[in-house]
Amino acid sequence: METKKWGLVVSVVFIIAALPLVLRVKDPREIQYALIRELLKPSIPKLLPGSSSMRKKEARIFGVSPNLTTCHQSSSPSGFRIYCCPPRSESDEAIIEFQFPDPSSSPLRIRRAAHLVDHNYLTKYNKALSIMKSLPYTDPRSFTRQANLHCLYCTGSYNQKYSNSEFSIHRSWLFFPWHRMMLYFHERILGNLIGDDTFALPFWSWDIPEGMVIPEMYMNASLFHGERDFSHFPPNVVDLDYRNKESGLSPEDQIRTNLALMYRQMVSGAKTMELFMGCPYRLGEAGFCNSPGTIELAPHNTVHDWIGSNSNPSREDMGAFYSAARDPLFYAHHANIDRLWEVWGDIHNEMTIKDPDWLESYFYFYDEKLQLNKIKVGDVLDTTKLGYGYEEVDINPWLNARPKPSVPPEIARPLLKSRHLQHPLQPSNHFARILDGSLTYRVSRPKIGRSKKEKEEEEEVLVVHGIDVQGDMFVKFDVYINVVDETTIGPRFSEFAGTFVHITSGAESVSESNIEAKRKKANLKLGISEILADLKAEGDQDIWVTLLPRSHGCINTTVDGIKIDYLK
Ligand code: C2O
């Protein structure tokens, strides 16, 4: 036995020693490395297709998912630490594949507008939530665990599966489907706790005038939450364009601004999939993307910030992702976001993403029976199949809120031209500037005089690229086109192309794993075809683009450049 073993060792050593001669490799270390690589191979699946000849047999992995074994603490650059992992590793749980609810045994749950619910409903919701809040932390249905789900998926608590890259569900096309799943399970757990399988979450319809205050129901009992900005309590009108300070607008003007912003984000600015849904986020380091869709930027981010408490450093709870879901209002806010995803489909010909990297991405959620479900993005595209729907509220009043130019284009254009002749602007494509004041650049348009058909096929998109938010803080800046007077401009006018809004995660860099904490720059993509038409600038070779800082955090933010692109 012993001699056999030694014989084996000797022959292995001989082979290794002889290999350099056979292969004519100068450095024997290279062989060792090659052997190690060979040994490691089967455990690391191929991430991306190679050249076409190699592609045949390699199974390409589609989509992203969290690696449950990697749950770890996160920390911010300032040293703030956060730990949201479950008490027991989910990787030890039995995982089931998600099944649609059986339509014959469970009625459709109808989500109603929060300002229209009745007393009976209120009693039910309050009861369900009190029970949920009383469950121990070891129970995944407990309110704290539910809230921590959001924290887990937004602070980089997990690595991606098959990659050590960060895993995150904001600022990309994962935004809508992930939050839909979270609400789906949350709603069913609540219903189950009071034995009511018709229970549905309410939605906070901040996009219609009647819904533009914090719904009364969230001001009492278990739905009340102390960590909010008390100065925004009813009857204050929500500011969908919130800049971390009060707008000073009258309620009527605030409503007008809100509706105009909604129009931009839902209609003219959201004509392509990517503009609305956010960028394609794929497996691995190279697939990381950071370019949120219109609604995620605002009102989603702005409302988060508007609700959060002004006495907390990052406006916790709603103002920071790690803590946001501790406020019951979070769920009503997201129910409205989820509803708007449906509405967007209705007004843009039911566009949907067919990319398997989106459809096959999956996440994990506990259901009402305490089973851990694996659920794919492709599973949550049909709300009826998921057993819920939304009550009709109004005919989307923002549909008719198309903004008008602040200055008639006939007057604005000569003014802009002469100003430009006096102060020639630098080219815009690459400038790398700090946003410590307003910046105006002349941006040239690669294609002018496109036909109607071309315009329908491809949206003209203004890209503000390489936005670097240094430190994890609230940042908001607006983008305007052909603006004459910066001091009076806002979303109510055609010149407003869109806004970049970044809210704090709380903690997002990673401290206890092999992930390198990396900050990725963001891109802001804005559909501008309709704006150019409204400003009578469709035939112009150049447009003037102004970046207007709207929050203090802009002084720590840099932008690499501005350019025009075309998106299908
Ligand atoms: Cu995941 Cu409203 O945030």
TrEMBL record:
SUPFAM superfamilies from the UniProt entry: Di-copper centre-containing domain
UniProt keyword annotations, A-Z: Copper, Disulfide bond, Metal-binding, Oxidoreductase, Thioether bond
Organism: Turnera subulata
Top-level taxon: Eukaryota
A Pfam family of this chain: PPO1_KFDV
InterPro entries per the UniProt record, alphabetical: Di-copper_centre_dom_sf (IPR008922), Polyphenol_oxidase_C (IPR022740), Polyphenol_oxidase_cen (IPR022739), Tyrosinase/Hemocyanin (IPR050316), Tyrosinase_Cu-bd (IPR002227)
The family this protein is said to belong to: Belongs to the tyrosinase family.
Protein's name according to its UniProt entry: Tyrosinase copper-binding domain-containing protein
Membrane-spanning parts: none
Residue ranges constituting the Tyrosinase copper-binding domain according to the UniProt record: 170-187, 327-338
GO MF term list: catechol oxidase activity; metal ion binding
